[in-house]
């Protein structure tokens, strides 16, 4: 299995090079560089959690196909959540619902910090599109390798978007504190 360590390192190095050079050229502040590095760590973690580990060994893929170990895609809203609740197994419920919400709270919080004039609807749209990209990548990967190691789940899409909305609410609640302590980049009012 290909784990997410190497892709995560590449992502972090890319963020460090891009935003480090901007910082050295004085086109961004130290605070902006810090925030972009935190976002780089978040993106690396997001990619690692949602797309990896990824099977590439033929014998492993063949075994998983033969043993029917693939996950089903879910295109029906709330179906996966309903099934998780019906199992009564709380770790599954917490992972399915809570994990997907928590995964996108940082994105909903970070976007208005990084882009001071961004509209609330755009934060939600960007978050939805990031989640859709992840789910679509999982769908395509399943088609390419012949089974769903990771599956497309519309419930994940909804819970991720809800998480971003919660992150936006947290930003709004903390706006005055952040502004008072000079932790915002060119912000007007929330």
Large-scale geometry: globular
Major beta sheet summary: none
N-C termini distance = 45 Å
Strand content is under 5%
**Total number of distinct structural domains:** 2
Low-confidence stretches: none
What string gives the helices and strands in order? HHHHHHH
State the total count of DSSP E strands.
0
Relative helix content: over 70%
Overall pLDDT metric: 90
- Structural class category: mainly alpha
Number of helices: 7
Radius of gyration: 19 Å
Organism: Fictibacillus terranigra
Keywords: Membrane, Transmembrane, Transmembrane helix
Transmembrane segments: 6-24, 33-54, 97-116, 123-145, 157-178
Domain VanZ-like: 41-174
What does this structure look like?
With 190 residues, the chain is mostly helical. The longest helix has 27 residues. It has seven helices and no strands. It starts with a helix and ends in a 10-residue tail after the last helix. Helix 4 packs across helix 5. Keywords: Membrane, Transmembrane, Transmembrane helix. It holds the Pfam family VanZ. InterPro entries: Teicoplanin_resist-assoc, VanZ-like. This is VanZ family protein.
